[in-house]
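The step that takes the researchers longest sounds almost clerical: writing a folded protein down as plain text. The outcome of that step, for a single protein, is printed below.
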Amino acid sequence: MTLLVLPVAKAHSDATYQFVIESGTLTHLRQQLILAPQTLEVKTGEVGQVGVLVLGEETARDQIYVFVDLLTTTFYFAERATTPSEIMREARRYGGILRASADRFDRPEGHSAHVNTRNTRLVVNAKRVHE
């Protein structure tokens, strides 16, 4: 009998990930507003936030919170939640989850995916930038 062991890819326990909102829209009063590209860096196990900036306007209309799960390569995005458990709950409800194998985030080009929050539709690129 042969036992085959496959390695499990996990998020680096003390890494920093960079999230680039490449494109997106915000639904506000039934209007689709175009979002400005932005960059955010978040460490594993922490919560980061970035303002929702609409092209042509200087002020942030809302915040997007990002929680980087320490045990898996799963990133949760939410608008109206600030603690990890609230962010994870809201992300599951609206489709704000970015998940892939750890090696995808180690590539120089990172990993891009569609992410939704309560009022936004985003294309986010994520990659590991520091350990």
About this structure: The CA atoms of residues 105 and 127 lie 4 Å apart. Residues 84-94 form the longest helix (11 residues). Residues 1-10 have pLDDT under 50 and may be disordered.
